[in-house]
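Each letter names a residue; the fold follows as tokens. Both lines appear below:
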Amino acid sequence: MSVSQAIIHRLTRDSGDKSYSLSDKPLELTETESRLLSEIKPLFVRRASKRYGCFSNEADVFKGLVVNWLGDTLNLVSFSQKTIEYLAIALEEQDVESDGYWLFAVDEQEAGRILWLAQLRQREGIVVNGDNKPDYCEYIDFGKLGFCASLNLDQVNQPGEQKFLTISFGFGERPMQKLMMDFLSFTDTVDTTADTERFMSLVEDYSRDMPEDTGKRYQKEVAEYCIEQVKNGEAVNYRELSGEIESQAPTGLDRYIEERDPELKEAFIPDQSSLKKYIRYSGRSRDVSISFSNESLGKNITFDPNAGTLTLSELPAALIKQLKGE
């Protein structure tokens, strides 16, 4: 079992009222706690909105609580209780509504001890009980997982460490974003968009010496590899990538990058949204929605940048039938 400590508290702030229900002792660890974290971790890993960084230089509340906890001034119960109490104050001061259960779990990994902080929400459902009758129940709705953070506790006090805190927000949590970033003393230290665009710009230049179809396919394969790494929670090492997909290449991508941009990070965290255009072009307006593979552009789909128009040929058979009214 990788979970060594865990505790859950309830926090509600709704229409001016705030309340919390604080647990006074850690959970008795069973397979349920490990199962709970095993459900949360892949959801967190697959989120495209993650931000990577560390604590800011300001000595804010949460940062201070973490330092005291790691220094054994506080135990997990006191640390988590005080975190919820101060979070309730922050919600009240900024007039933000929130409701859910907050999980604090220490995960023992090879990379170090990871503190997981996750907001859990419940929903009502129906089960068949022991008397073979339908009954109401409440259960965790993992599809509505709220704010989530992972904090590498072994790196917090390491000098120069700039990427020990990763955060992500659930759908519709815009009001919580600034509040939680301020509360956690979070500062971005990794610009995933800039790193990805810099790398893919080199990939585009590299693939220009290939036939057009081959070049577009190569860019797509690179983007798909990067997205798969995102889904697995892994960084992209361009040397490893080069070894995986070099069958179409006139020379090695890794050697090309060494010559063109030797300062490029060997490993980087890709930004999924920046990679989508290398796989599919898509867009929508009120009346039109369109999506097509990047390999189609220049073949059965052409774009006139001056007129701002797309010309399509080889339309899908189902669309032709609809247009003909068949």
Observations:
- Residues 3-188 form one domain.
- The chain has three domains: 3-188, 192-276, 280-324.
- The chain has a mean pLDDT of 87.
